[in-house]
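Review form for a predicted model. The reviewer records the input and the model, then writes brief findings.
Reviewer: anonymous (R2)
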Amino acid sequence: MPSDRRLPETAARRVSTTRGGRRRPRVLVAGLGNLLLKDDGVGVHAVRALQHGVPRGVRAIEIGTAVLDALHLVEWADRVLAIDAMQAGGDPGTIYRYGVEDVADRTIGASLHEVDLVAALRFLTNGHRPEITVLGVEPETIAAGLELSPSVQAALPRLVAAVQEIVASWRV
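Model under review:
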């Protein structure tokens, strides 16, 4: 991650527009989780899989557990798609989609990273709060290790496809 927390002015000028001349929303795909804890790192694994498939105006960033360090990116974005492990009672590898308010209200199961994301929103300084959607993946194993469990590894292509579909719908 660059040491300068603000995006260069040239980045703001290179924002793509729709055919009608309206500015397309700036989209942040945020990979959350701890790579050292197997399935807890699914968000980071997903962003790595996406690195070469994101359109202009979309940033796919490995945030890991450093949510506060990424606030400048959240402030930049109009929409944020956060990807993380989420314990909600389904079979391992199940993919969930929720609004960040659902996670904050605890109406569903959640990981600590989404709660950290919600808490971090209080530190936004520019008064702008982007729309945030959470894609969660039911973990099989949260234990020391760098690799995903077989169930979550098998879900990774579906997760990447879901991210691409959501981002494409936001960019229309």
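Findings: The radius of gyration is 16 Å.
Further findings: The domain at 23-171 is CATH 3.40.50.1450 (Rossmann fold).
Recommendation: see findings above.
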